[in-house]
Amino acid sequence: xxxxxxxxxxxxxxxxxxxxxxxxxxxxxxxxxxxxxxxxxxxxxxxxxxxxxxxxxxxxxxxxxxxxxxxxxxxxxxxxxxxxxxxxxxxxxxxxxxxxxxxxxxxxxxxxxxxxxxxxxxxxxxxxxxxxxxxxxxxxxxxxxxxxxxxxxxxxxxxxxxxxxxxxxxxxxxxxxxxxxxxxxxxxxxxxxxxxxxxxxxxxxxxxxxxxxxxxxxxxxxxxxxxxxxxxxxxxxxxxxxxxxxxxxxxxxxxxxxxxxxxxxxxxxxxxxxxxxxxxxxxxxxxxxxxxxx
Length: 294
What we know:
By secondary structure, the protein is of the alpha/beta class. Helix content is 33%, strand content 19%.
């Protein structure tokens, strides 16, 4: 076996692993264990140098970095001897934007003698061909997707995010560090408590008598926003896709439906789609478009 996954959280590492002829070595960053995989190695960023040395001793020549991670805080007192020479490069990388940080990490790993592979090169079936996977492609959706592509391109120049929500040509939300789920939640407003009895307009007596607080209603689309719209997701211009290819999955479609969107649009060849049949099923159930835009 020559492949190792430096794995973060989520289901993607397991999907990559199961598509290989032989099980790869799984090295998980502490605090970001992948779903459905038992790591062979769990390491801290302060021990990256010794972890790379261990992978090399196991005959590893190829590394794929896959899964969700957050920038770890570095404890200077925990840095081991093998990692100390790498610290200037790691700190310089982490001081940059997301793409710059990942490019810096790739340089460190390649400098240690490994080839860095992208998830898409190991699981090409996760990149669906262009076309409509669910729903109906309307003129309005095409126009909003084109507007979304312009927005993501502009965001990419500042190394900010990979997705936005557009309705009738207006940008309703853009992705930032917290991610796509956070962006979709920003379209919602929390439901308040169930209405109080009219004889007790402030709810004081009924709350005291009933004990537990009245149940909260389900969050709903912010009425200040125009209805509908699409989630558009694509790589930033010039993005390093070997370690940060945008990804959607069934949870994305479910959250888009909860946010009252009309559809989800991704750039062909640039966004991994996890469990595409399930994504299409969710879209159809909610009357949403799922389009892989050429």
